[in-house]
Amino acid sequence: MTKQQELENLNKKWFVECQCELKKTATQAVSGDGNGDAEIVFVGEAPGRSEDEQGRPFVGAAGKFLAEMLSKINLKREDVYITNIVKYRPPNNRDPLPEEKRSCREWLLEELKIISPKLIVFLGRHAMNNFFPELQISQVHGKLLIKSFKGISTKYFFPLYHPAAALYDGSMREILIADFKKIPTILKQKM
């Protein structure tokens, strides 16, 4: 069975088994999307309106900016895997609650276990704090974090500001692009 098939089976299982309260208000689950053999997994926060409608992560304005940044390092969406810590859209795009994050955590961990990427890139503080609750994104963005977690082989993590931050604050755009451009060097040096 290919990793892609394993991911499809995993998603079918969790569409049924996930107990997240957001299931009641979301249009549909938004599972991860992309290459099951990817070296890089991008982990965001939660689906927004466009994602909830289309059933794919990062397809709205933040997704367009993510695609633009990927092209700057000679990658396409098809080369990477993109997912979120919460698989259902919170009402009015509010921050996901701790219990919502907990109810989707096993789904995320199983995705990461199947893919076994070399690098996990956090898109925003919620994604980072799901693994590193004590850190502040303003202090560690663009810096490689190394830590082992039970159940996943990956030990290299790279926090970035969320692409949506650059849409709301133009000064963040250059910071995010500069941090993003470090990804190929990190892959070459550490992996």
TrEMBL record:
Reaction catalysis annotation: Hydrolyzes single-stranded DNA or mismatched double-stranded DNA and polynucleotides, releasing free uracil
One Pfam family linked to the record: UDG
GO function terms (MF aspect): 4 iron, 4 sulfur cluster binding; metal ion binding; uracil DNA N-glycosylase activity
Ranges for domain Uracil-DNA glycosylase-like: 31-181
Domain of life from the UniProt record: Bacteria
EC id: 3.2.2.27
Alphabetized InterPro entries for the sequence: UDG_Type-4/5, Ura-DNA_glyco_family4, Uracil-DNA_glycosylase-like, Uracil-DNA_glycosylase-like_sf
SUPFAM superfamilies the UniProt entry points to: Uracil-DNA glycosylase-like (SSF52141)
UniProt keyword annotations, A-Z: 4Fe-4S, DNA damage, DNA repair, Hydrolase, Iron, Iron-sulfur, Metal-binding
GO BP: DNA repair
Sequence similarity: Belongs to the uracil-DNA glycosylase (UDG) superfamily. Type 4 (UDGa) family.
NCBIfam families: UDG_fam4
Protein name (record): Type-4 uracil-DNA glycosylase
